[in-house]
Specification:
nine-stranded mixed sheet; four-stranded mixed sheet; globular; single chain; about 280 residues; 7 helices; about 30% helix; alpha/beta; UDP-N-acetylmuramoyl-L-alanine:D-glutamate ligase
Length: about 280
C-alpha cells in the first residue's frame, strides 16, 4: 500500500524558455521548449516517487490526449493511479509557461477545470495525505480532518478561503501568505516557508531555524517549491528531525532546478544520497 496520497490538480504544460520577456510588439525566439506534466500535488507526487516513497495520486483528468499524457507519465514514474479519475465531461487542465532565462521569472497561464475526485475507500490506509490549493477543498469535501491516523500536509501558494494552519500536521505556505513560522508552537504542527534562493525557515514548536539553499546550476526554478514540499513529506515518512528534513528538501528542490520543467531534474534517492555525501565530504 502506498504511504502517501497526493490530492490536487494535474496539468499538461507547454514550457518555453526565452532569454528575456518581449517588449510590446517585439518578437523573441525561444531557446528551448518542452511538454511536461505539472500541478503542485502532482509534481510533489513525482518527487516522492523518485525518492522511493510509495505514492498515489488522486486527481481528475479528461479522456483526451493531455489526459493520456498525464496517465502515462504517472505510470512511468511508478505512481499508483488507482485514484486518478478519467472524466469524459472535462478537458484535462493545460498550461502555457514562459520562463525568462535572464530574469529567472515566469509567466503561467492555466486552463483548469473544477471537477473533484471521489473519496477513496481505502483512504485510512495512507500514512500521509498531501494536498495543494485544489486538493485542500477536496479533502474537506471528503470530511478528512487532522487528528486521525493519517497525517495531513499542505502546499499552499495563495491566501484561500477556509485556509487554517491548524488543520495540517505540516503547513507549508508560500511567502505570499506568511513568513511567520511561530504558529507551529500554537498549532503543534510543523511550519516551513521556502524562500527560494534564501533557503527555508522552519519551526515545530520546539526547534526553529533557517536552512540555506544549496548552490546549484539553475536552468529554471519552475516547480521547485512543489518538489520541496514533496521531499519534505518524504522526510516525514523517513522520520527525519526537522532541521535535517528541511535541509534534504532544500537539496532536492535545488537539484530539480537543473531541468527546464518542474520534474526532469528531480533526483532519485540514490542521486540525493550521492549529492549529500559529496556535500558533507
Amino acid at each position: 500500500m502506498s504511504k502517501v496520497l497526493c490530492v490536487g490538480i494535474a496539468t499538461v504544460d507547454t514550457i518555453v524558455l526565452v532569454e528575456k520577456y518581449p517588449a510590446a510588439n517585439e518578437r523573441v525566439v525561444a531557446l528551448d521548449s518542452i511538454r511536461a506534466v505539472g500541478g503542485p500535488a502532482t509534481t510533489a507526487a513525482v518527487a516522492l516517487a523518485r525518492l522511493g516513497v510509495e505514492t498515489a495520486l488522486s486527481c481528475v483528468i479528461g479522456d483526451d490526449d493531455a489526459g493520456r499524457f498525464v496517465f502515462e507519465t504517472l505510470k512511468r514514474e511508478g505512481i499508483d493511479t488507482q485514484h486518478v479519475v478519467v472524466d469524459k465531461s472535462v478537458r484535462t487542465a493545460t498550461g502555457t509557461i514562459v520562463v525568462s532565462k535572464s530574469e529567472q521569472t515566469r509567466a503561467i497561464m492555466v486552463q483548469p477545470h473544477s471537477q473533484r475526485p471521489t473519496k477513496p475507500a481505502n483512504i485510512n490506509d495512507y500514512q500521509w495525505i498531501h494536498v495543494d490549493q485544489f486538493g485542500m477543498q477536496t479533502i474537506k469535501d471528503w470530511g478528512v480532518k487532522r487528528g486521525g491516523a493519517t497525517k495531513l500536509s499542505i502546499d499552499i501558494g495563495y491566501e484561500t478561503p477556509g485556509l487554517n494552519a491548524a488543520d495540517y500536521d505540516v503547513y507549508a505556505p508560500s511567502e505570499n501568505i506568511t513568513t511567520d513560522v511561530s504558529t507551529a508552537a500554537r498549532d503543534r504542527n510543523i511550519v516551513v516557508v521556502s524562500k527560494g534562493g534564501e533557503g527555508s525557515v522552519y519551526s515545530n514548536g520546539i526547534d526553529s531555524g533557517v536552512v540555506p539553499a544549496i548552490k546549484a546550476e539553475i536552468v529554471s526554478t519552475l516547480g521547485a517549491g512543489d518538489v520541496f514540499h514533496g521531499a519534505l513529506v518524504a522526510t516525514q515518512v523517513w522520520n527525519k528531525p526537522i532541521a535535517e528534513a528541511v535541509a534534504i528538501a532544500n537539496a532536492v528542490a535545488g537539484l530539480s532546478c537543473r531541468g527546464l520543467d518542474g520534474q526532469s531534474g528531480i533526483p532519485t534517492k540514490a542521486e540525493l544520497a550521492a549529492y549529500l555525501a559529496e556535500a558533507q565530504s
